[in-house]
């Protein structure tokens, strides 16, 4: 099994740059898995993508994978480090899926991650720190991404929070929540 790292944080915090640093430090061939779909008509979005592209070393392979993330991870070679940027965009690309389909896609991703021989660095946005969205699609996005990040953190060797240009290693500073099945045991030990 490869090493799984999760880098999370708010917009423009530096999380992608930190993930790029971790991928370079892996010593492996880096495959950048871009989940964004470029739209040249949206100049601001197009510029964000260009900014990311210009930071990458020339020897990195880039794959554009807006939806089929599980299959891409399953095909990864052990001598590679995949940098998946970002899970928020991937979730947004799948918002049209009904709840049952989404649960299947999520289960497949988590099962695949658990079996991949390559190292993987995931980048995920933190979106649940503000006002609850006033519209259903916004709430669905926030809830799906939050749940994915929480479940993926359990599989990750290290979880980082990047905020305000600072990196916090949550695996050292914090404690993971117990599984929901174990929650009663956890509470009784603290009582």
TrEMBL record:
InterPro entries: CobU/CobP, P-loop_NTPase
Domain of life: Bacteria
Functional pathway: Cofactor biosynthesis; adenosylcobalamin biosynthesis; adenosylcobalamin from cob(II)yrinate a,c-diamide: step 5/7; Cofactor biosynthesis; adenosylcobalamin biosynthesis; adenosylcobalamin from cob(II)yrinate a,c-diamide: step 6/7
Residues annotated as binding GTP: 9-16, 34-36, 85
Active site: 52
GO MF terms, alphabetically ordered: adenosylcobinamide kinase activity; ATP binding; cobinamide phosphate guanylyltransferase activity; GTP binding
EC annotation from Swiss-Prot or TrEMBL: 2.7.1.156, 2.7.7.62
GO biological process, one term: cobalamin biosynthetic process
Stated family: Belongs to the CobU/CobP family.
Function: Catalyzes ATP-dependent phosphorylation of adenosylcobinamide and addition of GMP to adenosylcobinamide phosphate.
UniProt-recorded name of the protein: Adenosylcobinamide kinase
Species per Swiss-Prot/TrEMBL record: Nostoc edaphicum CCNP1411
């Amino acid at each position: 099994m490869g090493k799984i790292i999760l880098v999370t944080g708010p917009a423009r915090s530096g999380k992608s740059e930190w993930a790029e640093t971790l991928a370079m430090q892996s010593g492996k061939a880096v495959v950048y898995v871009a989940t964004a779909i470029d739209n040249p008509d949206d100049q601001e979005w197009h510029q964000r993508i260009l900014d990311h592209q210009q930071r990458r070393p020339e020897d990195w392979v880039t794959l554009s994978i807006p939806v089929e993330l599980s299959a891409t991870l399953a095909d990864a070679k052990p001598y590679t480090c995949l940098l998946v940027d970002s899970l928020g965009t991937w979730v947004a690309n799948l918002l049209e899926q009904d709840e049952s389909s989404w649960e299947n896609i999520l289960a497949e991703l988590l099962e695949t991650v658990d079996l991949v021989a390559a190292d993987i660095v995931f980048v995920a946005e933190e979106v649940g720190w503000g006002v609850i969205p006033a519209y259903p699609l916004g709430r669905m996005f926030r809830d799906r991404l939050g749940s994915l990040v929480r479940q993926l953190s359990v599989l990750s060797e290290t979880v980082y929070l990047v905020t305000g240009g600072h990196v916090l290693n949550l695996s050292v500073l914090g404690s993971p929540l117990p599984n929901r099945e174990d929650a009663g045991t956890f509470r009784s030990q603290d009582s």
